[in-house]
Amino acid sequence: MKRTWIVAGVVAALALSGCARKTALEPAPGQDLPPVPYGASEPPSSTELLELDPQAAPQRSTELRRRSEEREDDPFDIPPE
């Protein structure tokens, strides 16, 4: 019984050791990096390629309403039958 726990512990330690490995990002074999943008002198780095543009991830507005406002009429708000 103790032997199976030891083996399970070793397997878990080996599995977890691979999780923290950090290496430089490189394209997959057979793939190229995206072309250099027009007007740029050098290709963007991997961190620049991973950044989202503002339209892909807009800022969330968490401002609460300060007073009640009338809702506009919704033509698609049909009562259930």
TrEMBL record:
Residues 71-81 have a biased composition (Acidic residues). Residues 25-81 are annotated as: Disordered. It comes from the Bacteria. The keyword Signal applies. Keywords: Signal. Residues 1-22 form the signal peptide. This is Argininosuccinate lyase. The lineage of its organism: Bacteria, Pseudomonadati, Pseudomonadota, Alphaproteobacteria, Sphingomonadales.
